[in-house]
Design brief:
Structural class: alpha/beta
CATH topology: Aconitase, domain 4
Shape: globular
Number of domains: 1
Number of helices: 8
Number of strands: 7
Oligomer: single chain
Largest sheet: 4 strands, parallel
Strand content: 15-25%
Distance between the termini: 36 Å
């Protein structure tokens, strides 16, 4: 697992350049362009289980689902940030991408620190320090576990 660490106001154009909005629609087409202007190494090195740390207002900017679809396709385990843009937050829920609000953990993280998440306890452990975050509502976890809102809805209709 690798930790990716970014600052404040990471907008949707930084996450997925707008010039590809109408030419990339599948996760496979989106992945190579993720964060290409912010961190050219990200798309080639990010892997399943990685965690992304960021500052405030993560995902601000235009309303596009490509950043969330791409991050989910890579297998990002969670994004831990000080705050999120509302529309990005909702898109992440829809796609089943886990977002955690924990400013103290973001401030405490230093490159090279070990990080683990305990969703049941609402806890992030960085090195030997523990940081609490509000437990995620069961409905959000069910959507995430199903792979997103569409898959969750399909499961519910089968019951």
């Amino acid at each position: 697992m690798k930790i990716w660490n970014y600052g404040d106001d990471i907008n949707t154009d930084m996450l997925f350049p707008g010039k590809y909005t109408y030419s990339c629609s599948t996760a496979e087409e989106i992945r190579p362009h993720l964060l290409e202007d912010l961190d050219p190494e990200f798309a080639g090195k990010a892997a399943e289980g990685d965690i992304l740390f960021a500052g405030k207002n993560f995902g601000c900017g235009s309303s596009r689902e490509q950043p969330v679809v791409g991050l989910k396709a890579i297998g990002i385990k969670a994004i831990v940030a000080k705050s999120y843009a509302r529309i990005f937050y909702r898109a992440a829920i829809n796609q089943g991408l886990l977002l955690i609000d924990c400013a103290d953990a973001v401030d405490a993280y230093k490159p090279g620190d070990s990080v683990s998440l305990d969703l049941d306890k609402g806890e992030i452990i960085i090195g030997k320090k523990s940081f609490s975050f509000p437990k995620l509502p069961p409905e959000i976890l069910k959507i995430r576990d199903a792979g997103g809102l569409l898959a969750y809805t399909r499961e519910q209709l089968k019951k």
